[in-house]
Amino acid sequence: MDSLYARYPFFEAAREAVAGADVSLPALVAADAPAVERGRERVERALRSGTTASETPDAYDAKAELLSYPIARILVSLLESNAAVEKYASAEAATAADRIRADLDREDTLRSTDEVSLELSDVLREFDLDDAVRPAVPAAGGGSRDGGPGPAGPRASRSARDPEWFRIDVAPYLRLSDPDWGDRWRLVNRELRDGAVRIDRADLERCLERAVRSRVLEGLPFEFAADDGIGSDLEAHVADLRRLLDERATVGGFDVVVPELFPPCMRNLIDKAEREAALSPPESLALMAFLTAIGMSPDEIVAFCADTSLDAEGIRYQTEYLRDEAGAQYPPPTCETLSAYGICHNEDDHWQVAGDPLAYYEARLADAEDVVDWRDRNDVAEAT
Amino acid sequence: MDDRTREYLRGRFGDYYRDTSLSPPPGANEREWGHIPWTPGSGTTMVRHQSLLDLGNLEAFFRETAPRHAYFSAARYDDPGVSTMGKKGWRRADLVFDLDADHLPSVDPEAATYAEMLAACKDALQRLLVFLEDDFGFENLQIVFSGGRGYHVHVRDEAVLELDSEARREIVDYVRAIDLDVDGLIRTEQERGTTKRVLRTEGGWGRRVHEALVEYADDLRELDEDDALDRLRELDGIGEGRAKTILGAFRRNPDAVREGNLEAGGPGVRRLVSALCAQVTADRTAPVDEPVTTDTHRLIRVPGTLHGGSGLEVCRIPRTELDAFDPLVDAVPDRFTGRTIAITCAEETTVELNGDAVMVEAGTNTVPEYVGVFLMARGDASKAPER
Predict the structure, then answer these.
(1) CA-based nearest residue in chain B for residue A142
(2) Do residues A230 and A201 share a domain?
(3) Are residues A141 and A57 in the same domain?
(4) Could you give the number of structural domains in chain A?
(5) Mutation site, B161, B170, B198, B259, interface A, largest A CB count within 10 A
């Protein structure tokens, strides 16, 4: 059970486990327990990389992992920044969505006993959606009809070829989706009937990600009394994170696209995608974060990646998450983080120039003369 | 409006309320109440931000104040009587739809009679109800004649009460087919390495277009070859070759159309689907007034009260009685049907109410009271002294 809670610490039962366990958060903080360091990492990774997964997962046991979540919530509240809270919630949601996908996709037979067992019906029940979401079973002879009531997710009906369809009640659909996600998310373009909307598994998972985000945002930021001891005990961590926030806020701001000057790791990723090779999720996230941070709009990124293995829908999905409402962006990961994923290899010893792709690009731009923005070249090409 | 007319109407509205028992909406004490009193002058000042507590006993309030117009909020608040929206503490709101003759594309308000406007509005209401009942599956609906130029529908299904304004806009756009992606109605399915184009038949606008397509294909099959081809060629972008492909596919495999499979129809099918879509959206949308639905703080007329611009009752219409409902008969208050009164009109006019057409001449007339109240409330007549 602990490992399930450690993976999904925002689950109601996990919260109860924390409340019921004989631990006091102020005591953990005062003792600078591993959960505190991991809590700080959660927030830092959320702000830097859009995930809250640990870079060194083996360093923490399930208990520290679970307890790090309430610590992270305290830390992000102490930052006193709405943008940070939103970013943190989105990162928890994105991480949870990846885990849910991985846990549900894993074949039952391959599960070892110590692994987490999670069914779609568990996740739906967690968000009070077990009555609102039902499998839509394809009928014989084309088309499909509704399945009977009951918990969703009969694995037996899944096959690699058929997309799996569900029907979700319209009110939760509207609550858990956003018309800004694209035309097909607009209700007018959905198959609505008898109060329910037909969606496929990928769309359902995206709705669940939104549900996680709302759950994480509930109650944030906490209000602290001025004399609250926990604030002063966490002061050093908060100062680090705040510095990160400030530093990140000033990165970028340039709005010029010169692919020739892109840092080597980004060039590598583009070359790889142009060879029609699929990028791994961290690779495509790193590339999208970089392209977004240098000021490219989703449309421009789609155009830029037209001849690559990256599909337009995936690009839009990812870049929407990378832009935040204030217009600031998730910064791309640092070179060090990228190297952990095998993306950056310190080509030409470029870490000497700068420790992250943006700063590197900025430095090269500053040295270059007579650059022509790729977008302007593109316009010329279209006009002739 | 002169003093005599205003005092008369106020007195008679009061008499109406003395006979009437208003049934308040659910959560009446959490709603904001507002009314427009019979004040002299042309100004219409609304008294709002009142809670039920401020009004006191609801029926006593109506008997004594006999307001010209009365409203409550679609929303329920922690503290409905506070004077600023931000401080009221919004909790939830009914999902409200307003159909008003002024917003119907098929009605020219200058040329249409009142009866024609209301008939067009009732047609639009029936279309709206198809969406609300069949597509959305709402169960707790209250249909109301506004007493003026249209109808209101209050939806109180638990699941919709907490929807925000953006979600409500999605519902409006759905029933009005705004931003409908016509190309998106056709989906490409992969089957053993080949692609198949299919219509989205499982609900929504796709299902409506599919029904129209099945009907169209059935009609085509009834025609002889030349007539069928001519009919297809009437559509934009469909020439002889495409028409033949479509007709051939419809004749060879009628089941494919019924299943929404468009693959055999060739490239012309897309044109056919667009043309049918244009027709279906023109025929079936319900032109609801968007801001009424998306404004979650909106005030709306209280059912059971009188509309001060017509003297007609704002009446609830049970679902089973909607087909038979005639606003010009059923919304005439019984209180105003028992006697005649004297009024003065500047111009001659005809009033169709309560199943009669009453001619009114310029000058002083003696008319059924409901006709007099209607004309005075509209500002087309004034009260004359009774002899």
Answers:
(1) B259
(2) no
(3) no
(4) 3
(5) B170
CATH number at residue B20: 3.90.920.10
**Does residue A147 surpass a pLDDT of 50?**
no
Residues near B237 by Cβ (< 8 Å), separated by ≥ 6? Answer: B268, B271
Q: B315 and B269: one domain?
A: no
Contact (CB<8Å) B202/A144: yes
Do A60 and A147 share a domain, yes or no? Answer: no
**B170 with B80, same domain?**
yes
Chain B contact probe: residue of A184, A193, A203 with most B CBs at under 10 A: A193
Identify which of B163, B169, B205 has the shortest CB distance to residue A171.
Answer: B163
| pTM greater than the 0.90 cutoff | no
pLDDT at A362 over 60: yes
A98 and A138 share one domain: no
For B121-146, how does the pLDDT look when each residue is reduced to its tens digit (9 = 90+)? 999 999 999 999 999 999 999 999 99
Domain hosting residue A67, numbered range? 3-105+221-246
CB contact under 8 A, B179 and A188: yes
Asked if the model's pLDDT at residue A133 lies above 80, the reply is yes
Is the domain of B292 the same as that of B259?
no
Picking from A172, A183, A191, the nearest residue to B206 by CB comes out as: A191
Look at chain B and report how many structural domains it folds into.
3
Is A277 an 8 Å CB contact of chain B? no
Q: Looking at per-residue confidence, does B93 or A247 come out higher? A: B93
Asked if the C-beta of A182 comes within 8 angstroms of chain B's C-beta atoms, the answer is no
**ipTM of the shown complex:** 0.92
Which domain range does residue B342 map to? 337-386
B157 is catalytic: no
Nearest CA in chain B to A165: B202
A94 in Cβ contact with A51 (< 8 Å)? yes
